[in-house]
Amino acid sequence: MPLRGTSHGKLVGDEAPYFESLAELDQWASIPHEKLMAVLEYQARPQFAESSNQRGKLLVCHDYKGGYTESPSGLCYTFNFWPLCDSFVYFSHHRVTVPPSGWINAAHRQGVKMLGTIIFEGSGEADCLQLIVGCPQVGAGPTLRTDSIPMSRHYASVLAELARQRGFDGYLLNVECPLRGGQEQARALAGWILLLRSELVTKVGRHAQAIWYDSVIINGQLRWQDRLNNLNLPFFLSSDAFFTNYTWPTSFPALTAQYFMSLDPVLISDDAKGSSVKSLQSIFTGVDVWGRGSHGGGGFGSYKAITHIDPQSLGLSVALFGQAWTWESEQDKPGWNWDQWWEYERKLWIGPADPQEVVPVPDAPRRPGEPECPHGAFKPLSSFFGHATPPDPAQLVFYASFSPGVGHSWFVEGVKVLQTDAGWTDVDKQSSLGNLVWPRPSLMWEDNDREEPLPSASSMLDMSDAWNGGNTLKLSISCAGSAADDAFFRCIWLPVQSFNVTSLMSYDVSIVYKTATCEETDLDLGLYVKPLMTGGGDLSEVNVGASTQSDLKNGWTRQVLSFSVPPGTTNVSIAVGLIIGFTAEDPSQPLDFSISLGQLAVYPSSSTALVSKGTPGILWAKFQSTKPLTPPSTGLSGLLTWDIASSFPRLALRTISSPEDPNPAWILDTRERFPSFLYFNIYVNPYPLSGSVAEATAAIFIGTTGLDGRANRFYVDPAILPKSVVHGKGLRFYVQGVTDKGDILPWEMCAHVDYMFNLGGR
Q1: Which range marks the domain in which residue 486 is found?
Q2: CATH code at position 558
Q3: C-beta separation of 149 from 181 below 8 A
Q4: CB–CB of 373/295 below 8 Å?
Q5: Which tens digits make up the pLDDT trace of 555-602?
Q6: In angstroms, rounded to a whole number, what is the distance separating the alpha carbons of residues 39 and 178?
Q7: Residue 233 parent element (H or E)
């Protein structure tokens, strides 16, 4: 049962989060379903043309305890290395695995495709055949008789519709049972994959993927090949990409590349997606982090396998299976906790916090007759892959609260509204941690002529404070004393997040932070934007406006500025960060200061003041109890729903001199979207037996939306209602919106609804 801080309840209409059989899937398809409107649409990352077809990509296959294990009432495993990934597979051993909406949002927020899984294993042979031939209808006449297995579009259409409705981007196809129909069934299955891809393109988009796992071969036998060859080639040609098994000897990645290069270019041209062509990047070579037959033994030896795949030079991609090994393999050890896992996890992915630390790599078992394969020192997984930027903020507003998706508390505009002992997990609230500042800040002197050593800097998640959410990213900076004549004032550039942006587009940047300094030290912070690189060379400048600063609650500060990129540039990469000036009364003495980053947002600039712009608000709220007029003593449960709206400011009518006047009576912003919200905070106030209900500012926080993917609804149950609120004559529920830019709606733009108990003779 969820604690306050997050709430999801059960799904409307008892929608299953996954399906154990095709029969269950058909039952779901027989009932109309609305698309989950709180799930973000996929937006592709901007690509640099010269590098897009060279380096191999990373697919992460998340096989964790059967899936669907995240509890909103505790600290659970989350994945936080989205900039390294191209695709993420949510895997389980159910027939059809549907990624939870929070995981989809976390992936899409950073431009990663999220896939479900279709799996046939053990007793799945009958369902595997039915997948191809479809579902005969009750009362239908005789079935068509043919010389081979007929293919039906039925399940291809249903599965594509499921992906469209739930908001994910395709499937991993895992057929690990023999095909009794032999080569005829294998060919029909390959043909059915083409049908699935066609349906996915139509219903989900051209970015959708159907990835084939190396399992059955062309004669229907279950024989993992550990590489691409003639025995599984037809399945690869029918799919978007290929995921090899992970028990390959070290020679197989090169053999796979060699075999692929021998293929007729006509075969690998992708008619299903127009002019696209398969490449070495389309082959994901499997690596099992658990080490089950995987070269290097998995774990901290996984880099040995990836070295042979060689995504940087050879160009093959990597499919990393079971990356939550860092949690599962350690969780039962004495004294283990989330903080220890976080250190262990970051060590595998990005290396130890101390660059001088030597990471021990256990000896991996060798197969009989396998020669010794020496490797160098440990390499973190991140060293093999490119670090991608999130989608262009012109296409998808960028918002970061620097959250890993877990916490102990919840804050709203710097005020703590929730404290838990067990903590909470909500992957929907996960965001970028600042790719230029975490795990290690990259400082540089703002004055390039300064020759003294740079200050040392570190970054860490601080769950004791936040602006909106459960934590800040706390940056600690230490500077040695200096005898330089100008050392009384020194200035550094601290980049926080990189983006690829569009020229001729104007953007706004908003950052919220707070600072702490040692005695006799003063800080002066300025939000700024600097160029990194472009596809055609260095970019000399970014047009940056002056920043405006405002003081917020509890010591927080907000700065906002606008920037744009000059015309004539493409593939523009920029860094958003802070210019930090610091003064010391005695510059010869070392000094320390810290900056807590609470929130960063980047979005298209607003239009001119002459344009009528909509203001977001919550139009109305409604509460429907599952037991009408439930007495408080029996517990209250029900559904809270609401609608959102946009309203223009009061119109100042102007005099129109003539019907021929070319100036319109008002101008609307054609680019302005309807209000979009990250999530909603939910509060409650008791209705006392006598007197009136308290003001909204006194209301008690009971949760947020976001766990079920449904828009504008929240389930209320007894577990999230404090006992202190159910002893009056009723309740008042409040719905408070948090916009996609991270702004909290003022109470006058929010909505509430009253619910009165049936007190009988009380």
Answers
A1: 398-604
A2: 2.60.120.260
A3: yes
A4: yes
A5: 999 999 999 988 876 668 999 999 999 998 888 899 999 999 999 999
A6: 36
A7: helix 233-238
